[in-house]
Amino acid sequence: MRRYLGIILIAVIVIVVLIALSAAGSMEFDRPVETEGDPIRSSYNSGPTGVRAFFQLLEESAVPVERWRERYDALSDKARGASLILVGPFQFDDLSASEALELQRWIAAGGQALIVSRSPRALFHDSYIHLKNKPATPSPGISADQSTGQPTGQTDSIVAGNAHTLQAQPTELMRGVSEVALSHFATRMAFYADVAEPPPPPKPASTGNGTVVEEPEAASQPASPSPSPLGAQTDVLEEEDAAPGMLFAPVVHLGDGDGAVLAEFHYGEGRVIFLSDPFVIANNGISRGANLALALNLARALGAGENNAPRRIFFDEYHHGYRKESNPLVNYFRGTPMPWLLLQGALLGVLLLYTYGRRFARPLPLPQVDRHSPLEFVGSMANLQQAAEARDLAIENIYPRFKTQLCRRLGLSSRAQIAEILECLQTRRIEIREEELRQVLTLSESALKGETIDDARLVQAVRTMRRILSATGR
Questions:
Q1: Does pTM surpass 0.85?
Q2: Bridge-partner residues for 316, per DSSP?
């Protein structure tokens, strides 16, 4: 393991460097500023054009608010008696004719919808909805602070200065609302059937309290309600797929001489509210003027159910790309560099496995492991000597070593004679009998000179040698 430590450390350092470079490359230091021309109206977006502030405000106010991440054909089962907020334009998918029909059926069955868009017809697919003015093109001259990445004066530059000209009716949605701050790009809506000539503009009428309000434009067209909202799309939908209701007799809560800004319709058993400027509830506009009061009134109206039972409020996120059928982990890491980091980590792992099995140098011989024990040699030599009765050879192997160790411990030369060893033993306090030492030394010397020795005497001599070494050992 120690010899691979350097390789492992280098691999870890390389991985960390690659991850750091990938993360640094994925960071948008010059992140483009969100503009009204290219907005992101998702409740997940905390940028200036998102509606996350409105969603979190409702969430922290104990309003039962959720995000809708399924197709509209599931509304009748999972959102019965609820309210749906659609904020356009959608980021990924436009609303198809079949989905618009499902939305209309759900509303007609008792649902409620708030459609916030400068092109509401694209989100509801009803030919009764018309725009009296085309959305203005956002100015490209809006700059951003390079140190913070936030727009410089963007909110002030898009707020329209004609809020005082808007006329409001004293309705539930306009309670406590004095001046709504719209953007320059807000559209005006008119509601009438598709005919060759549009109806004349409504004339201001005076209420009992002296307030000038807009006459609902549909009042001038009571004769014939609009045809089926999707009737012109016979190439897409069959006759049995007719729209469940029709838009007529609107209640214009807010507007001016150009048209309606906030209007409401009863649609079958439910109702639908149109707001022609998402700036009112967007992050960069909800705090302007009376926009917050209007947004809370809308949420209060959508959340009020029968018998004071609260309705659930859903924000449509399906068409902004957050779909429930996709993996939740993928949705969590959506828009982050984490998928690329994981991919790079997997590629590095495959590369390490590949290089680990490759040889980059000359072939090395396999290590040879000695499978023999040292005791095997000793046992083999003992058996050979016993079979050959070579007792003198055994003494020759044992006695010199014994004498050398004994002389070293007594402080004598290894060539000392027997008399010198015995004389030195007398001066030392060692518990060894002199006669026993004399006997083993004499016997060993005689055996080395060729005298015959039997097995019993040999074994007894070896035992005596070991006992003497143990007595003199230190």
A1: no
A2: 68
